[in-house]
Amino acid sequence: MNSKHSKVSQFGLDPLKMPRHVAIIMDGNGRWARKKLMNRVKGHEQGVKTVRHITEACRQLEIPFLTLYAFSTENWQRPAHEVSALMNLLVRFLKSETADMVKNGVRLNAIGQLERLPDKVRQALDEAMGQTENNRLLTLTLALSYGARAEIVQMARVLADKACRGEIDPQQIDETLVGQHLYTGKLPDPDILIRTSGEMRISNFLLWQIAYTELFVTATLWPDFTRDELISILQRFQQRDRRFGKVEG
Ligand code: IPE
Ligand code: IPE
Ligand code: MG
Known about the structure:
Layout: H1 3-9, E1 21-25, H2 29-35, H3 40-60, E2 65-72, H4 80-104, E3 106-111, H5 119-131, E4 138-146, H6 148-164, H7 175-180, E5 192-195, E6 214-217, H8 227-239
Parallel strand pairs: 1-2, 1-5, 2-4, 3-4, 5-6
Residues 25-27, 69-72, 75, 199, 201, 203 line the site of one 3-methylbut-3-enyl trihydrogen diphosphate.
């Protein structure tokens, strides 16, 4: 048995049925803070700690892709002071975590309308992505200013533009080409999508990519989400029969 096998087996997991890509809608920071009679921003601060723990857990579990929904295109409509607190938190997170990401083999990636982010966030992102670009153990993708509909619109524009310029024939457009022109072009589709805090909705996240993703909704608020709960979701995932529309094999 090699080290990979023993590592996940100790958590009651089958090494042959591990997901490659886990995506998470990190929801419930505000409610966590309200329950404790604190400002919503405190909930976001606590949420950042969970990001750190869950990233580390995925690395230990040798899951190669983790994608976190951190800020949606719709979240720009929140009060300016909350948006600005979130942006500041993001810069702080990027600056404080880059060294650990480098050390731990984590590659940082970002998807979304990144051009809408304040300059200081884009600079911190570019810096962190540059410093971690050769890491291979875990690709941590942050969905920032991300909306799946906007992503699909930009894909349509790019493909239409290429067709107009004669670079592609419209008949060549197939599912592979569409997938390659989304922000997630280089990522596999998620095997698991987790949403914390109980809401049964997708909120404009990865609409194309989750066609056959296994969904898990937990009532746990994001700041309270733990490695143990992630492991229990992975155990339940391994018991599911993924048929992809076929007859069970
Ligand atoms: C998720 O927590 C973080 C972001 C959307 C940025 P929320 O801020 O949505 O928390 P709730 O849903 O109000 O509890
Ligand atoms: C989804 O959470 C977006 C993120 C987690 C970044 P929201 O709190 O924005 O979603 P709704 O408003 O409940 O649909
Ligand atoms: Mg929410």
